[in-house]
Write a structure and sequence with these properties.
The complex is a heterodimer of chains A (394) and B (224). Chain A is of the alpha+beta class. Chain A contains 14 helices and twelve strands. Chain A folds into two domains: 190 residues, no CATH class; 179 residues, no CATH class. In chain A, helix 10 runs antiparallel to helix 12 and helix 12 packs antiparallel against helix 13. Chain B has 224 residues and is of the alpha/beta class. The longest helix of chain B is centred in the C-terminal third of the chain and has 16 residues. The chains are: A alpha+beta (394), B alpha/beta (224). The structure holds adenosine-5'-triphosphate and magnesium ion.
């Protein structure tokens, strides 16, 4: 009966020597790797997806294609391009933005971060549609020429002293007053960003025409592919070059998912290899166990054990070993995933790691199955022993 | 008298690499229900070999062996296992017990292979251990028992499925005379209760208990 075989297996495993416990390391590492990898990458996926949901799927982003090589006149985007896009019907608004990494100082202490300029008319809309909310204060209005809305980490830890609403910071020798602080977004770049008015930014950075990115908010999500194509065509005609790229949020998401998929595939491959090593470990341990217990097998056969009984006894044992390895693997794997989550948080990227019971159960069942499969050959060998030979074995 | 065991011209040849070792050379005999048979002969004469064949632990190279009406060479592996479990009780000279199981679990083990529920098994095992005088050693592992105690545990185990035949291969070979006599007394009592016993021994004194003596020499019967 299975319960007896189970008790016998527990008994046998309890009497095992350290050496045979060491053979478990393979399966523990394999299962731990699978559990942590799947958990982390699924968490990554859902974190990115939820950020994109905030970001809004209804956006088309136009950016310069970047430096084309020395000698080429790499013409970036300009206000002319913004006008071209604005002429196309179907957008709620079109926001040109400029971004510059620059020195920022507060009470003589210097910091370095990204400053963005966004037009006053769409300032609030732009953030609201991005899903970013205010923690304190308000958004910049038409008249706030030298007001700034800053990310949560700018006030928290950019400078020795914490900033407050109303604190004065200096950019390019010009003083700005903090009128609003954004809620935490979850990635360090956004949370360290300082947002000011586009016109002000053009003035202090002396960039009258340049545009670093154009964000076009479409009215109906269904129009996105058509509008994307139209932007591409019109820009190409007007500019007479293709030094720009037009992407949608969904496209970026797809690309990220594709990369994630490849990553998952490779990592699961690595985990599978370590599981094979684990399986060989269990098989080796079971062969040893069969040898050590040859005489027991003889005794059991002499008192009525059938070949199938012996087979089951050893299969249950190897399944149980797999399961024990699986339990440790699942524990270590979950711990590892949580640690990675903590680590990413301190690195400035909020990864919400969720431990999913279904994945844990899958890990356990998988380890159990690996155990049983690894036990098949040794158990079969044990079951086929002739009673006399087994009894005489020294 | 019903014939329980019958051997007809049984041969057993062990093959070692290229050489053949003949262990039994044409044995014919029959044993009746209720017999107490002593199987004696010098070392290497084939006693254990004969015993293993009767106990279905091995198959003859030639000849027929009947247990009751069954010719055992026509039985399947699992049928033979059933016979070993239910009709026969084994007591060996050494290494009788599973070392990782307690005395009680060892005694109960043959019933596990007959799918008897655990509660019933352990109850019956306790009764048998009491009968052989080991009620205070049930939770001991074999390594914590003396040689005589181990043999008594083995006897209790041999009885648990209430078999008709008890095969004992030099059960007292490793014991001092006094302990050996106690074991012999247990076997004698079992025979009185109707069990058929085949006892392999070197000791001519022990043959006094038997009603039938089989002498082996070089794999053949001597006299009779
Ligand atoms: N598995 C085996 N392989 C090869 N030869 C064997 C095997 N088992 C027994 N023999 C040989 O068969 C012969 C009979 O052996 P068996 O064990 O039956 O003798 P025995 O009468 O029981 O002796 P003992 O009194 O010493 O136990 C011996 O010559 C022995 O070497
Ligand atoms: Mg012998």
């Amino acid at each position: 009966m299975l319960i007896d075989y189970f008790l016998m297996a527990v008994n046998s495993i309890r009497h095992r020597k350290l050496r045979s416990w060491l053979t478990l390391i393979g399966i523990v590492i394999g299962v731990a790797a699978i559990i942590s990898l799947i958990t982390v990458s699924r968490s990554l996926e859902s974190t990115i997806e939820s950020q994109f949901e905030q970001f809004g799927a209804n956006r088309i982003i136009v950016s310069p294609r970047g430096f084309q090589g020395p000698g080429t006149s790499s013409e970036g985007l300009t206000v002319k391009d913004v006008e071209t896009i604005e002429k196309i019907p179907g957008f709620e608004y079109v926001v040109p933005g400029i971004f510059l990494s620059t020195e920022v100082s507060y009470r003589k202490e210097a910091g370095f971060t990204l400053v963005s300029g966004i037009p006053a008319e769409n300032f609030e809309e732009f953030f609201v549609d991005s899903g970013v909310k205010l923690q304190q204060g308000r958004f910049i209005k038409e008249g706030d020429k030298f007001g700034a809305v800053v990310g949560s980490r700018v006030v928290e830890d950019m400078f020795r002293d914490k900033l407050r609403l109303g604190s004065k910071i200096e950019i390019k020798g010009q003083e700005f007053k903090i009128v609003g602080v954004l809620k935490e977004i979850g990635n360090s770049q956004d949370d360290n960003q300082i947002n000011i008015l586009l016109d002000t930014a053009r003035e202090i950075f002396s960039k009258p025409d340049d545009v670093d990115a154009i964000i076009a908010q479409v009215k109906y999500a269904g129009d996105i592919p058509l509008l994307q194509e139209k932007i591409e065509k019109d820009l190409e005609r007007k500019r007479d070059d293709t030094n720009f790229q037009v992407v949608t949020a969904t496209q970026i998401l797809e690309q990220i998912n594709q990369v994630l998929g490849i990553m998952q595939f490779v990592l699961v491959g690595i985990a599978a290899i370590s599981l094979v090593v684990g399986a060989i470990g269990i098989m080796n341990s079971m062969y040893t166990s069969v040898l050590e217990r040859t005489r027991d097998i003889g005794i059991m056969k002499a008192i009525g054990a059938r070949n199938s009984d012996i087979l089951k006894i050893f299969l249950v044992e190897s399944g149980l070993i797999g399961l024990v390895g699986g339990i440790f693997g699942v524990l270590f794997g979950s711990a590892m995933a949580l640690i990675i989550g903590q680590f990413s948080k301190s690195a400035g990227f909020t990864l919400i790691v969720k431990i999913e019971p279904l994945i844990l159960i899958f890990g356990l069942l998988f380890a159990f199955a690996v155990g049983i499969i690894s036990g098949i050959l040794p158990a079969y060998q044990a079951s086929k022993l002739k009673p006399v030979d087994a009894l005489r074995y020294e | 008298m019903t014939t329980l065991i019958k051997l007809e011209d049984v041969h057993k040849i062990y093959k070692l690499d290229s050489t053949e070792v003949p262990a039994l050379n044409g044995i014919s005999l029959s044993i009746n229900k209720g017999d107490f048979v002593a199987l004696i002969g010098p070392s290497g004469s084939g006693k254990s070999t004969a015993m293993n064949l009767v106990g279905c632990l091995d198959l003859a190279s030639k000849g027929e062996i009947y247990l009751k009406e069954h010719n055992i060479k026509h039985l399947s592996e699992s049928d033979l296992a059933q016979i070993r479990g239910k009709q026969i009780g084994f007591i060996f000279q050494v290494f009788n017990l599973v070392p990782s199981l307690t005395a009680l679990e060892n005694v109960a083990l043959p019933m596990a292979f007959q799918n008897v529920p655990r509660g019933i098994r352990l109850k019956r095992a306790r009764e048998l251990l009491e009968q052989v005088g080991l009620s205070d050693r049930m939770k001991h592992l074999p390594s914590q028992l003396s040689g005589g105690q181990i043999q008594r545990v083995a006897i209790a185990r041999a009885l648990i499925n209430d078999p008709e035949i008890i095969l004992a291969d030099e059960p007292t070979g490793n014991l001092d005379t006094k302990t050996g006599d106690e074991i012999m007394k247990l076997l004698y009592d079992l025979n009185r209760k109707g069990k058929t016993i085949i006892l392999v021994t070197h000791n001519p004194d022990l043959t006094k208990l038997a009603n039938k003596i089989i002498r082996l020499k070089d794999g053949k019967l001597v006299g009779s």
